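Can't attach files on this board, so I'm pasting raw text. These are the components:
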Amino acid sequence: MIRHALAEGWLILRSRGPISPILALALAIPISLAGVTVSLRQWLEPVIDLSDRESVVAVLLHPRLDESQRRMWISEESRSHPDWKLVDVEPEELAARLASWFPYLEEVLQREGPQMLPHMVEITTRSPQSVLELKETTAVLAVGPTSSVNRVVGQVARRFSLVLLLVAGTLVSGAVLLAAVWVHLELHRNAEEIAIMRLMGATEATVRGPFFVAVVVPALLAAVISVVMTVVAVGWMAQLAAPLGLEARGALFVVLAGQVLGAVGLPMIAAFITLERHASNEES
Amino acid sequence: MIRIRGVTKDYDRRQILRGVDLSVDDGEMVFLTGPSGAGKTTLLRLLYAAERPTEGEIWVAGSRVDTLARSEQPQLRRKIGVIFQDFKLLRRKTVLENVTFVLRFHGIGQREAHRRAYQVLKRLGLHHRQSALPESLSGGEQQRVAIARALVYQPRLILADEPTGNLDADLASELLSLLCDINYQGATVVLATHDHALLESLPARTLVLRRGVIDYDGMWPP
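---
Top answer:
Structure tokens for the assembled complex are below.
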């Protein structure tokens, strides 16, 4: 039976001429693009992680608050917001920071002393927007910026990666559709021969074997082409990403193994379903 | 070998066979005749499970055919040699390959398959055309390839649907003598034909099918 499948499968391939390599290429392109897309997502993962990092929001307290009132306010806010980490920044430290950020203030700060500055509290949290509610309280003079560049970059990367996943899914769906149409056409071309073989007493395995061989050979070719294309594309991406300090998270061979499985498995599944449906239709 | 009880076959509300009852013993030679559209081909198709009856029971070579599962059909068909009216040859295979490929389903090796196929083709006068493709053969030659394919694995039952339709009188007579030989060797032969000359050339049990009913069952000429 295996010899029959190989011999007849080879005849089908030979009768198709250059169509097999063209089909292999047509299948390899969406699969390799899907692989490159998944690889690109691996590069983006470290950037996506930035969106989950904690942000620090500066809160200036009203100068009228004395030390005990400040401590009470800090302990109350810590209790009501367990996800916040509040750190009291002493005026001396704030003065030092201001002097480094705005050097022209150094002279004023030395002359007037740090006591002229309001007390600042730094709140470390994963949801910086929640700190904005403090604006409404009388103890707070001002709330600093609630968005960080890292966080924004991370969020953009996360959305981009979702788009990439959608693109990869669409490409794989296209590959499945292509494989199904390909097998269906092949079956249609050989429908008469299949019907005769069944009438002569061929088992389903005998009838299907050559088709699986005729599908597996271009599918293997598609797998090789897609692996080569992905390795080349990812190598090029690595060169671009190296100066940015980005490294892929996850191994490339997992993507390549997925591509081989997809390139061979999808046409096989399509062939199995199409042959099964063909046999059922013929019976009915 | 064949037992049919109350078989009816409808196509789009048109009744092709109406309550056919029939029994053919092992080793019998039976002619099936009747006008075009009488249901001869349909009856044969029911016997090799290419169709299911609308009603009734069909038994062939010990298997109940009307309820036969798809997976069991190959086993039944390997016991039957079918000669099709429209030949059903594989277009991309040579004459020899058309005859040998069925032997693969019987697990016969390539060398033995070639030997057997050559013998049958020689008997049918086609051995010199073994490398030809069906499209290059005349209608009569294609018919003989179809016959060779049906006989090559020495089936217990031969169903022939108008096998002499494309043959001249000499070849038709040669084919009939070949089928008689096979019948003498123990195979059951059911031959559907509307060729009266063929019927009269060999006294045998004849079934006349008219409007889906067996109108006559006995020796021919009556």
